[in-house]
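User: Let's play a game. I give you a shape written as tokens, and you guess the letters that built it. Ready? Here's round one.
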């Protein structure tokens, strides 16, 4: 559920901290500390330091006048205070979340949850809370006309 919360509200730092390394992506506490310092150094949003999720998922680190490549998910590693391996790991996470945002914009809740489960690699084969939630959402999702 934390994935869905971050997709809907990138300012939710608690949910972001839950998912950024689940499943393991080699984004540890040291990388998280560096990311937090980086996001706090960015221009403020709504009179407060920029939330990490907003900086990562909505590319708010870039100025509106910046011309970005479509695949420029993050600024260079050095600008973020990260080493190459940590930067790659964070980039993989950001690309995953950007893909899920695109799915969210063109699907119903059941399809979105199904894609989150598939993209993240969660097990749905055994009876679990996740399986029951997915089945309930699919049960109450209207069929397309």
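Assistant: Ready! My guess for every position:
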């Amino acid at each position: 559920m934390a994935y869905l919360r971050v997709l809907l509200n990138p300012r939710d730092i608690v949910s972001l901290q839950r998912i950024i390394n689940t499943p393991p992506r080699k984004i540890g506490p040291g990388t998280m500390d560096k990311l937090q310092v980086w996001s706090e150094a960015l221009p403020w949003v709504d009179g407060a330091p920029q939330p990490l999720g907003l900086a990562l998922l909505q590319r708010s680190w870039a100025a509106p006048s910046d011309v970005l490549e479509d695949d420029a998910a993050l600024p260079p590693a050095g600008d973020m205070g990260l080493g190459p391996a940590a930067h790659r790991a964070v980039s993989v996470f950001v690309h995953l979340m950007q893909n899920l945002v695109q799915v969210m914009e063109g699907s119903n809740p059941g399809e979105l949850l199904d894609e989150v489960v598939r993209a993240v690699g969660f097990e749905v084969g055994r009876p679990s809370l996740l399986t029951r939630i997915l089945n309930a959402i699919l049960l109450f999702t209207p069929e397309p006309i």
